[in-house]
Every structure is written in structure tokens, then in C-alpha cells.
């Protein structure tokens, strides 16, 4: 959420304010979320809207003086992030489900290797080896997609 907010605002304190406002909105309106699987997207959208509102308020009250070019640059950063997330999702989809799950646990959710081993009921060495092989495979797939101009 902080990355989304930071890509929309001019300084870090505004980004943190946007995330805080987003959390307030999420917690007060959580009953309006129809599908739990869409929580991540819903939270990102609320955060982006909160950041945009902070920019509007800042322009009016403090005269930040954002130019059109700065606003376009902030919007382009958000679109670049969305493109990168799409590319990562495509690469992860090429992995087998167990390897993909381990990578997500490790790098997206921040689990430690032992926590992953416990959650998946496999030995620690298996987790380490599979994560290492999966990273190598992703690098290889990424190079192939770059070579093909994807």
C-alpha cells in the first residue's frame, strides 16, 4: 500500500497519511467487500484514491504547485508498477504450484524458510532447494521472454 501511495504523492509523509486514511476506510467499509479474494486490489484502489485526495487537498491549501508533468509522471509510475506486477504474475504462473507457493510465502508474505517448511509439511532442506531452483528457473524464463521481446 505504501508503494501505491508513494507513487501518487510528492513526499513520504503524505504517502503514510494516505495509507493511514486507506486503512480507516478499509476498516469502516469492510462489509462492502463482496469477494474476499479481491481484498488486495480493493485495498490498493482505496489507497490510490486516498493519495489522490491528499494531493488535491495539498494543492488547495499549501500550494504544492505540482505541474501537469509531475502528475503525469506519478500516474506513469503507478502504471509501470501494474505492468511489472502483471509480468511477475505471468512468470510465476509458469512454475509448478508448490514452487510458486514457496516463492510467494518467502518473498511476498515474508515467511522464513522454517515457517514455510512447517506450513507445507516438508523438510527445511527441500524448501531451500526448491526456492533456489525456482529463482534460477524464473531468471531463465525472464531472459527468454526478454530475448523474445515480450
Automatic annotation (TrEMBL):
Keywords: Sigma factor, Transcription, Transcription regulation. Residues 2-60 form the RNA polymerase sigma-70 region domain. Pfam families: Sigma70_r2 (PF04542), Sigma70_r4_2 (PF08281). Residues 87-138 form the RNA polymerase sigma factor 70 region 4 type domain. Gene3D superfamilies: 1.10.1740.10, Winged helix-like DNA-binding domain superfamily/Winged helix DNA-binding domain. Belongs to the sigma-70 factor family. ECF subfamily. This is RNA polymerase sigma factor. It comes from Paenibacillus sepulcri. The lineage of its organism: Bacteria, Bacillati, Bacillota, Bacilli, Bacillales.
Amino acid at each position: 500500500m505504501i508503494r501505491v501511495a508513494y507513487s501518487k504523492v510528492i513526499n513520504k509523509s503524505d504517502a503514510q497519511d494516505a495509507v493511514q486514511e486507506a486503512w480507516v476506510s478499509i476498516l469502516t467499509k469492510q462489509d462492502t467487500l463482496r469477494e474476499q479474494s479481491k481484498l488486495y486490489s480493493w485495498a490498493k484502489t482505496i489507497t490510490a484514491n486516498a493519495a489522490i485526495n491528499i494531493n488535491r487537498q495539498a494543492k488547495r491549501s499549501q500550494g504544492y504547485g505540482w505541474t501537469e508533468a509531475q502528475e503525469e509522471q506519478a500516474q506513469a509510475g503507478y502504471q509501470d508498477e501494474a505492468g511489472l506486477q502483471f509480468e511477475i504474475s505471468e512468470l510465476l504462473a509458469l512454475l509448478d504450484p508448490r514452487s510458486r507457493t514457496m516463492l510467494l510465502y518467502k518473498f511476498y508474505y515474508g515467511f522464513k524458510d522454517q515457517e514455510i517448511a512447517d506450513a507445507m509439511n516438508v523438510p527445511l532442506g527441500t524448501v531451500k532447494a526448491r526456492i533456489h531452483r525456482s529463482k534460477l528457473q524464473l531468471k531463465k524464463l525472464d531472459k527468454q521472454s526478454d530475448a523474445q521481446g515480450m
